[in-house]
Amino acid sequence: MAKEMEWDERLNIGIDSIDHAHRKLFSIVRKLTYLSKNENHGQWACAEGIKYFKSYAIEHFANEEAYMQSIGCKNYEMHKRLHDNMRCKTLPALEKDLLESNYSQESIHHFLGICLGWLTVHIMIEDRAITGKFSAKWIHGKEGKDVEDLEDALSDTIQEIFKRQVEIVSEHYSGENFGNSIISRLAYQPIEGKQIQIFLVLEESLALQAVSSMLDMPLKRVDKLVINTVKELSAQIVNRLGMYLKSPLQYQLESSHIMTMEQFRKEFFTESFYYSLLFNTGVGYFAFCIHLG
What we know:
Elements: H1 16-36, H2 42-70, H3 76-100, H4 105-127, H5 145-162, E1 167-170, E2 181-190, E3 196-203, H6 204-215, H7 224-244, E4 251-259, H8 261-270, E5 275-280, E6 285-292
Helix pairs in contact: 1-2, 1-4, 2-3, 3-4, 5-7
């Protein structure tokens, strides 16, 4: 077995029943990864494996939540909300993508990438906090009308700018790698109050489709033209959001630059985010994250 696919001992949190379930989930993802490489028959084997993964994950969530209640874990409500988001939003959205694409290799890789990334971050931060020796990342989760308003505004903005309908995949996106992407980081200087940083992650397929549509010519690879266009589109998206939310941001754009996925994921491990949403546009994934300084 390749070294990169071996179990990472850092993912052990020290609770046997939970560690066993985590090893099982990673084992399923590992098998699905191998199956997905078979272009002839792998997709149908993956279809059955994905159903098993979902069933086992949901069972694990319930068992983990019961354990947290039994020990009076103080972060239970937020932790359950993260499970519910994965259980009721992310997995169904990924399944829909799989079905609509007839289990294409791309949709399978989306599924595996998001699930593997989510599991890793969730275990290393949220599940380790169950022991009381570490702090949880998502302590106060935004929900209700605030999130709904932002989702609606982003959906309208993406539809207007990219001419694509969108579907929410996650309300607690944690930097999962869903494929080759262009990542813009915009820093805004406040007129008064806290600095705000906004991160927009566009899968390359979405960026290429958008710029190709603007130029009315097919583009096959990401170049400086595409990257610079994405930087400008990112600023336009933020500007349009203020109009849709009827509360224009009282900030001035201070800087804008492109990040690598490694830099972006490092931010997620070291900072807390006010909002962090993931969408599927049908031609690529799109993430929108806000960090208040």
